[in-house]
UniProtKB/TrEMBL annotation:
<dbReference type="InterPro" id="IPR049874">
    <property type="entry name" value="ROK_cs"/>
</dbReference>
<comment type="similarity">
    <text>Belongs to the ROK (NagC/XylR) family.</text>
</comment>
<dbReference type="InterPro" id="IPR043129">
    <property type="entry name" value="ATPase_NBD"/>
</dbReference>
<dbReference type="Pfam" id="PF00480">
    <property type="entry name" value="ROK"/>
</dbReference>
<protein>
    <submittedName>
        <fullName>ROK family protein</fullName>
    </submittedName>
</protein>
<dbReference type="InterPro" id="IPR000600">
    <property type="entry name" value="ROK"/>
</dbReference>
Length: 343
């Protein structure tokens, strides 16, 4: 019996949302594999992060390394569960191309035997384990509990590269070869700067942190200005600082970044017409600097029907990959999570 009106309202909400009390819940585990750490969250089917933690793992290649990682992940989930709670599905975000058959096709930044890790996690949890590309996972996380505002979005992640995730009807578009959403390799400058993919003029070469450094060095060369000191070829932070302080070369470099993004996103809008674009990744906090040029170029280039599509900054930070992989797992396991449950 509820003692107060507030208790009664909470009870009603729990009933409506289908929330079970601690100890009787079917929960999700969302895992986000990075270069040196594995982040793990225990998540309710309503998208609440019950607990999250991380383990250090340099490599998950040998059977011993894989087994140790799986046990460490299980220990985090067990510590956060109330007695009687069950794990219903496990999602696994990885930095690489995941094929429609859940195979890791390309993972340049990590030593990982994905097949072995999936099998080991199935063993220790006793439920389905569903891998997903990490940018796709972040897209799903933002759709479910973050900056999304409908059942579709295009997520753009700005780091040392440019990645993306395309979600339509609440499901991430993987594509025939697992390469859907590789928006960093949209050509924005025919015969432009040579990209790591072997072609010229990809978005990534103008709008990633490496791209911003290249934009800046070009501008300094043009004007003859002495560049600010950069620690490495992807060290864009001092350029954003210089842009804030009014350096014309830095302002032009950041403007070039914004325009490249606007151009690419206008192209994407013609194909996907998402409910929103969400900008995440390490450079997204500089949106106040590159956003105006991005918006200006986007509106110039896009079809009129999509001119007012919201372009917003991601809200979930590090949680996006964990929440999104949990959501992906729930979808794949046929659990009844709903798109867009943000209250
Ligand atoms: Zn490329």
């Amino acid at each position: 019996m509820a003692d107060t009106l507030a208790d009664a309202m909470r009870a009603t909400r729990a009933e409506v949302m289908g929330e079970a009390p601690a100890g009787q819940r079917d929960l999700l585990v969302g895992i986000d594999v990075g270069g040196t750490t594995v982040k793990v969250a225990l998540v309710s089917q309503e998208g609440e992060v019950i607990a999250n933690d991380a383990v250090r793992t340099e490599s998950m290649k040998t059977p011993e390394e894989v087994a140790a990682a799986a046990q460490a992940i299980k220990a985090i989930a067990d510590a956060a569960k109330a007695e009687g709670d069950r794990v219903a599905a496990v999602g696994l975000a990885v930095p690489g191309v995941v094929s429609p058959d859940d195979e890791l096709l390309l993972s340049p930044n990590i030593t990982l035997d994905l097949g072995a890790l999936v099998e080991k996690l199935k063993d220790v949890f006793g439920v389905g384990v569903y891998p997903v590309n990490d940018a796709n996972a972040a897209a799903l996380g933002e759709l479910w509990q973050g900056a999304g505002s409908g059942d579709s979005l295009v997520f753009v992640t700005l780091g040392t590269g440019v990645g993306g995730g395309v979600v339509v009807g609440g499901k991430v578009i993987v594509g025939g070869k697992g390469s859907a959403g590789e928006i960093g390799h949209l050509t924005i400058e025919p015969d432009g700067r040579l990209c790591g993919c072997g072609r010229g003029g990809c978005l990534e070469m103008y709008a990633s942190s490496r791209g911003v450094v290249l934009n800046y060095r070009d501008e300094c060369e043009k004007s003859g200005a002495e560049p600010v000191e950069l620690e490495h070829d992807a060290h864009a932070l001092p350029i954003f600082d210089a842009a804030r302080n009014g350096s014309p070369e830095a302002v032009a470099a950041v403007d070039r970044m914004g325009r490249a993004l606007g151009q690419a996103m206008a192209t994407i809008a013609c194909v996907v017409d998402p409910a929103a674009f969400v900008i995440g990744g390490g450079m997204s906090p500089a949106f106040d600097l590159f956003g105006p040029a991005l918006m200006d170029e986007y509106r110039k280039d896009v079809i009129s029907a999509c001119a007012d599509t919201p372009i917003v900054v991601a809200e979930l930070g590090n949680l996006a990959g964990m929440l999104g992989s949990a959501y992906h797992a729930a979808n794949r396991a046929g659990l009844a999570v709903k798109v867009w449950q943000k209250s």
